[in-house]
Amino acid sequence: MSPNEKWKAARKQINRGELEVRYKRILLKLSGEALGTTKESIDLHHLQHYAQEIQKAHETGIEIAVVIGGGNIFRGTMSSSLNIDRVQGDHMGMLATIINAMALQSALENLNVYTRIMSGIRIDQVCEPFIRRRAIRHIEKGRVIIFSAGLGSPYFTTDSTASLRAVEIEAEVVLKGTQVDGIYSEDPMQNPKATRYEKISFQDAYKKNLQIMDKTAFTLCHENHLPIVVFDLKKSNNILNITKGHTVGTLVS
Ligand code: UDP
Q: From ligand 1's centre to the CA of 216, what distance in Å?
């Protein structure tokens, strides 16, 4: 059975209530930094790992959209040291996310997963522009959508893109992949006694000033009652286990 046939069969079971899943439609935020290493901006091993993790969750009939960052290649905040103005720098950062999206698309296609890249800025020879109804249509057909070029506007981040696109496509959760396995009371690298939260409310996260996503992104999730799961991207089966409802990382709700 091809991955798309597997997806369709599993999706039918989910729709008939024969297969229980916690989340049927998810938005995964993958930072650009997670793709690279100190030597390479895109590392083959990381790329293949994320593609496999997405594929494993996808074949269980889940609808998946991905927002990809560009920090491994360029961030708008780097522009001032290069004497480049911020808006120009932000556009460079958005183009960087398209490069990452193309790499992830190829890695998923190597696993025979159907994908579409949608972009926040027009780059028609490469991918489709973001059109909400088309995006929903793609995921309903079992294609993994990769949202690139952020929101297409400077001064935003791909975290904000993740929140907004999740709301727009009616995803049930934002999965925020990070280098640590959740949200801690303090920075676990600085204080080994820091404790991990299994669950935390939006209100408490505000009160404790926990840095989970940028404020715009976080507020958008809060106002739209969209839960966020912060989890370790490197650990195998995390995405799959979250969609099944297992406790992984930290749930903000
Ligand atoms: N960016 C932007 N508008 C957006 C999304 C991204 O201007 O809607 C630019 C911004 O310069 C940002 C860069 O693209 O620094 C790369 O995105 P981000 O830093 O969010 O990537 P990540 O940290 O996830 O790798």
A: 13
